[in-house]
Amino acid sequence: MKLYLSSYKFGDDPNKLAQLASSNKRIALIANALDFSNDTERRLASEQKQIDGLKDLGFEPELLDLRDYFGDMEGLRSKLDEFGGLWVIGGNAFLLRSAMAESGLDKILIEYKNRSDKTEFLYAGFSAGACVLAPSLKGIELADEPEKVTEVYGKEIVWEGIGLIDYSIAPHFDSDHPESEMINEAIKYFKHEGIPYKPLRDGEVIISETKLR
Domain 2-209 belongs to what architecture? Predict the structure, then answer.
């Protein structure tokens, strides 16, 4: 499985994302990190902007709401077989992580990591979409709001990350972003606790591949 982890949106060179596409250009847009928003018009505009950007890069995007698959991992697994990748956008990392747990997407991604037929599958995302892949979300609460999980979904907070990477992501580092100062606090926490992390400035991306065990 290929990874494209961005601090903010598509990064400084979106063509690098396009180059990672497999022969299957269909890509699922996951926007559950925005489930805290009650501004429907603003959310739809944000999703449409992402869809337009993906189309410009040669993808065939389709919005995939993980809430439609809460408690239905088999249904989600079947749906994901239609796609060559995911584009997971930013927002609240704890809501996104919870949605992944409730739908079983977290388990499916771990399966994909270890399947030889999914080596070309692309997991791409920014901010929260990158943070959830770490071993843990500890420290991210200094820049985000874990309590939104209870408010929005009525579920307990999931602190465990998916673990596709072995370090935490600190997005918006040293950037002109409203969360940049809060991310500095998260970085202090990572350092104090000895947690491996990678800071990303807006525009920067991490490109890698997960390995079969």
Answer: 3-Layer(aba) Sandwich (3.40)
Cα(61)–Cα(54) distance, integer angstroms? 6
DSSP, res 179: T
* Integer Cα distance of 84 and 117 in angstroms: 11
Task: Give 170-187 as a DSSP string.
Answer: ETTTTSSSTTHHHHHHHH
CB 77 within 8 A of CB 56: no
Beta pairing class for 168-170 and 197-199:
parallel
Q: Of 121, 53, 129, give the one whose Cα is nearest residue 88.
A: 129
pLDDT at 179: 85
State whether the Cα torsion 7-197-130-34 is positive or negative.
Answer: negative
**Domain chopping of the chain, boundaries:** 2-209
Residue 150 has pLDDT above 70, yes or no: yes
pLDDT digits over 64-89, tens only?
999 999 999 999 999 999 999 999 99
- Cα–Cα dist 155/150, whole Å: 5
> How far, in Å, are 71, 72, 79 from residue 68 at the CA level?
9, 8, 11
Alpha-carbon dihedral angle through residues 199, 21, 109, 139, given to the nearest 10 degrees:
10
The CA R_g of the chain, rounded to the nearest whole Å, is 16
